[in-house]
Amino acid sequence: MNIRQQKYKRNRLLGMNQRNAAIAAGYSLNYARNARPEKVVKGCLADAFEQAGFTDKKIIEHALAGLEAEKTFVADKVVLTSEDWNARHKYFDTILKLAEKLKDQINVQPAQVILMRFDNAGNQSSSPEVSRRADRVAEADIARF
């Protein structure tokens, strides 16, 4: 990573937006607008995290430890601990999202409706009179949905 990229990375970590971080690092205004040095630095950030010990294995260990989160509080000068279900839920939700097991939207396909016509005795009927009555009842049922 060259010096300009290091300056850009430092500026982004300090909270600057992409454009201002690039200009402060010494990139031209045109390059800051169009080239997006963020793409170049993104791989470098992953390498820096890896070198600092922030590996995928460490992330997984931390996430699994979060599933055992507890909260500590003091009541009548006694220190008590209990399960922190809110924190555990947040960890679990995040783990599922990272593993792409939890989606924000669910696409539901409408069910197919199959109409069977039966007479009063429960036998399948092909009588025109029963069929017309069954059609009216079926249309009313479908209209409710």
Kindly summarize this structure in a few lines.
The chain has seven helices and two strands; from the N terminus they run H-H-H-H-H-E-E-H-H.
Description:
- The structure is a single chain.
- The protein has helices at 3-13, 18-25, 29-34, 38-51, 56-66, 85-98, 128-144, and strands at 70-75, 78-83.
- The longest helix has 17 residues, at 128-144.
- Helix content is 56%, strand content 8%.
- By secondary structure, it is mainly alpha-helical.
- Helix 1 crosses helix 2 (18-25) and helix 1 (3-13) packs across helix 4 (38-51).
- The chain starts with a helix and ends with a helix.
- The relative contact order is 0.06.
Order of helices and strands: HHHHHEEHH
Strand content: 5-15%
Strand order of the largest sheet: 1-2
**Shape, principal axes of CA atoms:** flat
What is the CA-CA span between the terminal residues?
Answer: 61 Å
Number of strands: 2
Structural class by secondary-structure content = mainly alpha
Number of helices: 7
- Count of folded domains: 3
Uncertain regions: pLDDT < 50 for 5+ in a row?
Answer: none
Characterize the biggest β-sheet: 2 strands, antiparallel
* Integer average pLDDT: 75
The percentage helix is 55-70%
Q: Rg from C-alpha positions?
A: 31 Å
Please give the structural blueprint.
Blueprint lengths: L2 H11 L4 H8 L3 H6 L3 H14 L4 H11 L3 E6 L2 E6 L1 H14 L29 H17 L1
Helix pairs in contact: 1-2, 1-4
Defining traits:
single chain; 145 residues; mainly alpha; two-stranded antiparallel ribbon; 56% helix
